[in-house]
Amino acid sequence: MALLDRVLLGPGPSNPYPEATLALGAPLLGHLDPEFLRLLDETCARLRTVWGTANRRTLPLSGTGSIGMEAAFANTVRKGDVAVIAVNGLFGERMCDVAGRYGAEVVRVDHEWGQPVDPQRVLDAHPRPAIVAAVHAETSTGVRSDIAALAAAVRARDEGVLVIADCVTSLAGSPVLIDDWGVDLAYSGTQKCIGVSPGLAPFTVSERAWARRVPHPPTWYLDLGLIGDYVSGGAGGGRTYHHTAPVAMIASLHAGLGRVLEEGLPEVFERHRLVGTALQNGLEEMGLKLFAAEGHRLPQLTSVWVPDGVDSAAVRKRLLTEFGIEIGAGAKEFAATVWRIGLMGHNARMDRVELLLGALRKVL
Amino acid sequence: MALLDRVLLGPGPSNPYPEATLALGAPLLGHLDPEFLRLLDETCARLRTVWGTANRRTLPLSGTGSIGMEAAFANTVRKGDVAVIAVNGLFGERMCDVAGRYGAEVVRVDHEWGQPVDPQRVLDAHPRPAIVAAVHAETSTGVRSDIAALAAAVRARDEGVLVIADCVTSLAGSPVLIDDWGVDLAYSGTQKCIGVSPGLAPFTVSERAWARRVPHPPTWYLDLGLIGDYVSGGAGGGRTYHHTAPVAMIASLHAGLGRVLEEGLPEVFERHRLVGTALQNGLEEMGLKLFAAEGHRLPQLTSVWVPDGVDSAAVRKRLLTEFGIEIGAGAKEFAATVWRIGLMGHNARMDRVELLLGALRKVL
């Protein structure tokens, strides 16, 4: 069959950086090959830079972004622990589901979709939670929440709380500063602003979360105690085989991160900011209304109301078939009324903005 | 850095088929793109052929082989269920660990490493287990066990038992006939005989195991009820987003399976048989002793004793640095005394046999 070169402007996956695609096709190394272990170490070091952390346990988990969410809760929740979870979109909801499965008593703090998380409401929800969790960049709504303020407020009252942040859509697109913010566990995906195919979940754990981890979680595959012995060396400094690492995907992540760091994180963030602003201005000039609350909009993911009387699915289909452009539907109850447009990683470019605006003008 | 083109003759990963590598670099499709869903459906259909099953729920799980083991137990074990697990190597041991984490009362039936599983001993271990599990091709020892006989014996006594089989090293290298054998859940990895990079776990579930699955397992990521709604359509036939599928890896699996089926499964098995036999004969002609019991040796994975007085690690290092050949050490207590040599998928070729035997002659 003919290959299709789509322009992926949905909520992810995005088109990868060319370096990341080339690395996928490089000759395969064994998962215990000294050269692969060097590449893995360098990948973890690059991830530390992108996460803004010195955490020793910073690594790519062998699954897509959601596996990071699962690992975060599986390794920290003890039966009956109170987990206060801010919900302002689909991925906050998912956190509640996952935390509950691992035995947490979930206190869910609902916000209107399209609004950011309110730290004070999260704080007021429970006097003594073990865990507080929130989504930094809600992929379902295009909203950024202030994780720094949330973590600071939580910590000011109780130093012992573990803070978990979902950074799937923010990492390498907007500033993420794990150590400065005081976040204990955070996870991301490779297919958004990092500019790599989906299949890995960049993950980081603070020393105090590591010390307090569940010693024998229900999941073997995501038992951080076992994975840590392979990735960063065990107590004796030696590496222990856990599972066969997805070597090609890790080589691709290594290359994608290399491209991001070569450009420079401040430059990458500025690029995302500029193109996101240009898209959002362009949509408003066309008379469309943005969904996410002003002042809290992600540049890398724009949510916009479908104009009255327009068939959302028909427009997306025409964009795909006539222009090869994928954009996303809204999530859940907004499936027919909102579009989500991503400008992430390699697609955070002005030519993508012009292409999308031009195609949309034709179709509407 | 310079790229290294290793010859991967360890227990996996193996060098992928060229078609599988090329597919990794193809333009990326979105995980909800109609073209990708078509490719996913075709991948599942190809997997059914390779598994020898009509199971509707036959799919690639988004993780490496071990995630298949985890999914099998996570979705079937109810607290206190008796799981009789045959152990004749590392992966049988791992099954006990995983099943125990999900609340099974594990009855472990130990066999000498290097020997196949004895169905009668497994049968005698408990009068009324809920689950019986065994490894078809033990990657740690190079031994094949008779899953057909085991499943038949178990079923003859009690139709209700769920049978779980680890086929990580066997699938697409030796005949696997899920429906004929009466296996309920089976999993594999892509990096062995299927000839694709590591990162996916081909998985299949029988209708009766599906009907009896745990409705709300601790793991969200591996909840088959949720994944099934994306892969094969939910009750209403529609697809529901679960997690972002690793699209590049699935495209690669599609291509690898295409290559295997184009050659033909009987031809692929015969190729593995011929090269495995040639390698095993060649090693014996050099005076080396094979580890696995005669009559139960896998052609795709040969285990051989390190000759007395030979430094196992030094030989492996010389093979790697002087010849670019990776072979594997033994597992656990056999780390220094056994080598494992894989001839899997694209590497099941006579030139690999000659290369390895020649290099080994030089080094020993």
From TrEMBL, chains A, B:
Keywords, sorted A to Z: Aminotransferase, Pyridoxal phosphate, Transferase
Pfam families given in the database record: Aminotran_5
The answer on whether this UniProt entry bears the keyword Transferase reads yes
> What is the superkingdom listed in this entry's lineage?
Bacteria
List N6-(pyridoxal phosphate)lysine occurrences by residue. 192
Answer yes or no on keyword Transferase: yes
| GO terms classed as biological process | glycine biosynthetic process, by transamination of glyoxylate
**Quick one: signal sequence residues?**
none
Task: Specify which residues bind substrate according to the UniProt entry for this protein.
Answer: 340
The record's GO molecular-function terms, alphabetically, read: alanine-glyoxylate transaminase activity; L-serine-pyruvate transaminase activity
Q: Which Gene3D superfamilies match?
A: Aspartate Aminotransferase, domain 1 (3.90.1150.10), Type I PLP-dependent aspartate aminotransferase-like (Major domain) (3.40.640.10)
Start and end residues of each Aminotransferase class V domain: 31-332
Output the InterPro entries linked to this UniProt entry.
Aminotrans_V_dom, Aminotrans_V_PyrdxlP_BS, PyrdxlP-dep_Trfase, PyrdxlP-dep_Trfase_major, PyrdxlP-dep_Trfase_small, SP_NH2Trfase/AEP_transaminase
Names of the cofactor(s): pyridoxal 5'-phosphate
UniProt family annotation: Belongs to the class-V pyridoxal-phosphate-dependent aminotransferase family.
What's the protein called, per UniProt? Answer: Alanine-glyoxylate aminotransferase apoenzyme
- Species assigned in the record: Allokutzneria albata
